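Late entry, written up from scratch paper. The run itself happened at the end of the previous shift, but nothing got recorded in the book at the time, so transcribing now.
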Amino acid sequence: IQTSAGLQIQTILSGTTPTDVATFPMGPNTPSATFAIAGTFSGTITFEASLDGQTWWTLGLTKVSDGTTVSTTTGTGLFALTNTGFAAVRARCSTYASGSITVTLGTGLW
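Output as recorded:
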């Protein structure tokens, strides 16, 4: 889904398994992106990237609020990355207890 501002948005719905993902394609004209994690939830989101859309690797993002590099989050916030050639990025629910998580991705353009 795209918002009126052109942002991609996906919701990782409430569920009982930690397998839900929000996957976003990254084009060659996408030099940067920022994940916005929102909602009320108990769980862990793991950030990952793929060069081919098949194999996924853990990705370090910059937590905008304090500048630290993280590969997971258990809370809401903004998380920025530089695209160094990724075909896609995703936010994967790696552990889940309860709630609903909304993942939005804003991308920079050349």
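Residues 51 and 89 are 9 Å apart (CA to CA).
(Scratch paper discarded after transcription.)
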